[in-house]
Q: What sequence folds into this?
């Protein structure tokens, strides 16, 4: 049977699905009766989703950089008129 320390150790693996089924089931049954670990797992989940929100923004920066070049090229065309 899994204990609270097992949840703490395997929380990110559990969320990402990087665990064998037997281990997942052990953690799952612990979470069924342990509210404390459910809350803990919820915190980890929100942390992970915050990180995954930040990452696309980094990609957006390269897009805006490309967009800025296009806008600059357009404005240079305007000034030559
Ligand atoms: Zn627990």
A:
């Amino acid at each position: 049977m899994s204990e609270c320390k097992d949840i703490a150790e395997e929380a990110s693996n559990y969320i990402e699905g990087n665990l064998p089924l037997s281990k997942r089931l052990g953690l799952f049954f612990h979470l069924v009766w342990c509210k404390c670990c459910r809350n803990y797992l919820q915190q980890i989940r929100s942390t992970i989703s915050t990180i995954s929100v930040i990452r696309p923004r980094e990609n957006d920066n390269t897009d805006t950089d490309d967009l800025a070049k296009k806008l600059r090229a357009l404005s240079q065309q305007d000034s030559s008129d």
